[in-house]
Specification:
By secondary structure, the chain is an alpha+beta fold. The model has no long low-confidence stretch (mean pLDDT 93). Strand 2 and strand 3 form a beta hairpin. The chain has a domain of 45 residues.
Length: 75
C-alpha cells in the first residue's frame, strides 16, 4: 500500500492502515498482517508500531541494495 506524496504528513496514515487491516481481516479472515516498509521511512514504521506491529526481519533488495523492514501484527 502507499499514500500519494501530496497526502503524506496529514496524520491520516493510522486511519488508512486500520482500514487496510479491517479489510484483510474481513475479506480473507486473516489473523495476522505483514507490512514491508523501506528502512528509511521511520515515520511509517512508528505508525505501524503504534498499531501493535513488531519488526521481525530486515533485508536488502536484490540489485539495488535498498533496505526494508518487515513487521507483523495481529488483526
Amino acid at each position: 500500500m502507499g499514500i500519494r506524496t501530496d497526502l503524506t504528513g496529514l496524520r491520516h496514515g493510522k486511519q488508512y492502515a486500520q482500514a487496510v487491516i479491517k479489510f484483510g481481516a474481513t475479506r480473507y479472515k486473516a489473523q495476522f498482517c505483514r507490512v514491508t516498509i523501506a528502512q528509511f521511512n521511520k515515520r511509517a514504521q512508528r505508525m505501524w508500531q503504534k498499531l501493535g506491529f513488531e519488526q521481525v526481519e530486515e533485508f536488502a533488495k536484490t540489485g539495488s541494495g535498498e533496505k526494508f523492514v518487515m513487521m507483523i501484527g495481529a488483526v
